[in-house]
C-alpha cells in the first residue's frame, strides 16, 4: 500500500442550511458540481483576482469538507466569518483528520484528484481509520506534481501574489466561467476572454550551481524574465514571461550563480 501524507493540508467543515449558497459566492468553481464520489477543486481570490487559497471540496454528512492549505487555515476561518454575515452556517476545524494522496485507488475513500488524473487520488481520513504501512517520501509526489505543472499552494506560492491563469489553474479545473459572481470573478473572466496572459508556469532545472530558493529572480542575459517557485532538488517550477521564453527556448538562464534550463 503506497501513499503520501499531505502534512501541509488541513480540513475545515462547513455545515448549515446556507452552506452551499455561502461557498458559491466566494469560490471560483460551481458548488453544484459536488457529489459524494468526487471532489471539486476551487480557489478563493482577492477582489483584484489574485490567488489567496485553494480548496478540494467534498460533501459528507450534510457538511462540506474543505481540504485547505494548513498555514492559512486560521486566516481562512476568519475570512469565512467575515463573509458569512447572517448565513446559517457553522465553520469548524477538523484537526484530527488527515489528508492522503496515492497514485492508485487504495480504497473507496480515495477519490480522483480533480486537477489531473495522472496525479492519482486523494482522501480525507478521520481518526478512526488507519492505513497499513508508512507514508512514502513526499518528494516523490512533488516531483510528479511538478512534472504535470501543478503548483503547491504552500511550498511553491505566496498567497495574494499570483493570478490563477498565470499558473494554469483554469486548466486544472479550478474555475467555472459559467457560474455566477464570486470575489475576483470579474478580473479572472476578463483575462480569460481577452486571452492575454503575459506570464506562465514552466518546469525548470538547475543544471549547474546550487539549489535555489523560491522567489529567486531569473535572468536571460541582464534582463529579468521571471522568478523561481518551489524546488525538489534540482527540479522546480518557475513563473516566466512567455514572450522571452518562447524566443529563447534553447538558451540557458541564470539565477544567482546558477544556470537554469527550461523544460518544454
In words, what does this structure look like?
The structure is a single chain. This protein is of the alpha+beta class and 264 residues long. The chain folds into two domains: 4-147, Probable tRNA modification gtpase trme, domain 1 (Gyrase A, domain 2), CATH 3.30.1360.120; 199-263, Elongation Factor Tu (Ef-tu), domain 3 (Beta Barrel), CATH 2.40.30. The chain has five helices and 15 strands. The strands form three sheets. The protein has a six-stranded antiparallel sheet with strand order 11-12-13-10-15-14. The protein has a five-stranded antiparallel sheet with strand order 3-4-5-2-6, with helices on one face. Strand 14 and strand 15 form a beta hairpin. The longest helix is centred in the first third of the chain and has 12 residues, at 73-84.
Amino acid at each position: 500500500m503506497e501513499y503520501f501524507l499531505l502534512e501541509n493540508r488541513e480540513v475545515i467543515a462547513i455545515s448549515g442550511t446556507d452552506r452551499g449558497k455561502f461557498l458559491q459566492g466566494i469560490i471560483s468553481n460551481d458548488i453544484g458540481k459536488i457529489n459524494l464520489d468526487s471532489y471539486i477543486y476551487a480557489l478563493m481570490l482577492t477582489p483584484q483576482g489574485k490567488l489567496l487559497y485553494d480548496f478540494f471540496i467534498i460533501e459528507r454528512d450534510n457538511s462540506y469538507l474543505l481540504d485547505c492549505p494548513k498555514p492559512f487555515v486560521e486566516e481562512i476561518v476568519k475570512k469565512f466569518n467575515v463573509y458569512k454575515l447572517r448565513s446559517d452556517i457553522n465553520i469548524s476545524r477538523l484537526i484530527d483528520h488527515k489528508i492522503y494522496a496515492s497514485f492508485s485507488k487504495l480504497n473507496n475513500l480515495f477519490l480522483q484528484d480533480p486537477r489531473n488524473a495522472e496525479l492519482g487520488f486523494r482522501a480525507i481520513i478521520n481518526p478512526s481509520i488507519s492505513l497499513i504501512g508508512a507514508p512514502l517520501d513526499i518528494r516523490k509526489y512533488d516531483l510528479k506534481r511538478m512534472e504535470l505543472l501543478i503548483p503547491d499552494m504552500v511550498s511553491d506560492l505566496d498567497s495574494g501574489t499570483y493570478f490563477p491563469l498565470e499558473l494554469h489553474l483554469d486548466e486544472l479545473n479550478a474555475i467555472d466561467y459559467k457560474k455566477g459572481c464570486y470575489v475576483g470573478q470579474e478580473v479572472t473572466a476578463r483575462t480569460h476572454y481577452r486571452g492575454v496572459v503575459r506570464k506562465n508556469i514552466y518546469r525548470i532545472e538547475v543544471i549547474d550551481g546550487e539549489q535555489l530558493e523560491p522567489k529567486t529572480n531569473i535572468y536571460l542575459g541582464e534582463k529579468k524574465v521571471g522568478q523561481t517557485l518551489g524546488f525538489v532538488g534540482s527540479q522546480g517550477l518557475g513563473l516566466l514571461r512567455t514572450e522571452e521564453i518562447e524566443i529563447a527556448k534553447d538558451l540557458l538562464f541564470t539565477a544567482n550563480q546558477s544556470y537554469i534550463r527550461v523544460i518544454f
